[in-house]
Amino acid sequence: MAWRCPIAGAGRKAFPPEHRSSLRRRRALNSRFQMLRSEIELLTQAERNIALDSLTTQNLIPGVFDGATAYVCLPNEIRPQFASAVVDFFKAAFAALSSLGIRDRQYEIVYESIPAHVCAFCGVEPLDAPVAEIPRENLDHYLAFSIYPFAAVNLRNLAPMGQKCNSSYKRAANIIVGGNGARRRCFDPYGNQSATISLLQSRPFEGATKDLFVLPDWHIEFTGLEEETATWDSVFNIRARYKVNVLDSELRSWIDHFAQWWAYDVVQPPADIPSVIVLLRRYIDGVVQEGFSDHTFLKRAAFEMFAYQCGQPNTGERLAEWFISLLSPQTGAVLPGQ
Predict the structure, then answer these.
(1) HSE of 330, CA atoms in CB hemisphere, 13 A
(2) Cα separation, 240 vs 236, whole angstroms
(3) Measured distance CA(20)–CA(199) in Å, rounded
(4) Angle CA(320)–CA(321)–CA(325) in degrees, nearest 5?
(5) Residue 279 pLDDT > 90
(6) Is the pLDDT of residue 305 over 90?
(7) Are 86 and 150 contacting, i.e. CB atoms less than 8 angstroms apart?
(8) Which of 110, 183, 207, 215 has its CA 20 to 30 A from that of 172?
């Protein structure tokens, strides 16, 4: 029995009844649908089987993110005219998501579900509110449209992404295949997996000097799913962005805030390593917020590192002396009551 493509065979019946009248009025979508249908009818049986496998497996989401689930791209042996028709049809279908209001609805749902309203892929880029006066961020094709066109309008493959993450870093990267051509695991944007950041092994006073302030030599470690975090870092250049754009740029202001907090809220300056650690822990637990607003997850990790390194034999004495000098009424940057 010959295989028949569900799209070519079903025509408009392939679409849910409640949406058929709206879709029927969309000329671009309908014309490209008819072109795709015509190209499908010209395929051989073997080519149709490949096309169906491609349609099916590209939409095995989130299964294909596990690094092992098989998938099929549009291979070279299928007619170029068919591949072009697939791209044209799904490009028109993706554009229709905007005019149908689906993209805005998807963005609003995701935006409201993220407490800090930051890009879920980097945790630092703010997402604009879903209001008419402000353009909203892109719905990114997590599986790149240029490689996986059959997944172009699968909402599980579309997630709001910050402009820099989308345009400067991910672009058309193949999220499930590395540069060596090997499969790799990646996070599901709509899943509940996550990674945590640790800076504990950073080395104070061993980094670059900025405005006469010696930065730590940052060691950014991810704890959690090793393969997924490796893909995440590779695609979005996370370590470099955290180091250059946040840690190196903001540490001095974080230290100034710590000193100002001590000047207003603490009477007795620290005098030894244990008192410095107690003061740092008080600041971490009572002042520094948790979460992603204003990069606080990295600020918290930085002060966790200072508290940890104060207790280490190779760094503790020098680091504690530095904090004691910082908060000293005679030598400190901020005097009590100022």
Answers:
(1) 2
(2) 9
(3) 54
(4) 120
(5) yes
(6) yes
(7) yes
(8) 110
d(CA 154, CA 90): 10
Q: How many whole angstroms separate alpha carbon 180 and alpha carbon 234?
A: 13
Tokens of 232: 């995440």
* CA dist 308 → 78, 276, 313 (Å): 59, 11, 11
Residue indicated by tokens 């193949």:
174
Contact 306, 204 (CB under 8 A): yes
| Cα–Cα distance measured from residue 189 to residue 126, given in angstroms and rounded to the nearest whole number | 17
pLDDT of residue 6: 45
Contacts 24+ apart (CB under 8 A), 208-217: 208/248, 210/248, 210/252, 211/252, 213/251, 213/252, 215/247, 215/248, 215/251, 216/247, 216/251, 216/302, 216/305
Residue 118 dihedral angles phi and psi, to the nearest 5°: -125, 160
Secondary structure (DSSP) of 100-130: TTHHHHHHHHHHHH-TT-B-TTTS-SBPPPS
Q: Are strands 221-223 and 196-198 parallel, antiparallel or unpaired?
A: antiparallel
Which residues does 222 contact at the CB level (< 8 Å), separation at least 6?
Answer: 195, 196, 197, 198, 229, 232, 233
Give the integer Cα–Cα distance in Å for 18 and 22.
Answer: 8
**pTM across the whole model:** 0.88
Beta bridge partners of 196: 223
Residue 160 three-state SS: strand
Q: What is the residue type of 146? A: S
Structure tokens at 63: 């299964």
Structure tokens that stand for 84 in this block: 């072009």
| Confidence (pLDDT) at 22 | 72
Q: Residue 36's pLDDT band (boundaries 50, 70, 90)?
A: very high
Among 170, 162, 190, 166, smallest CA distance to 61 is for 190
Helices 273-286 & 248-265 angle (0-180, nearest 10):
100
Q: Which residue has the tokens 């530095």?
A: 322
Domain boundaries, the chain: 6-170, 196-327
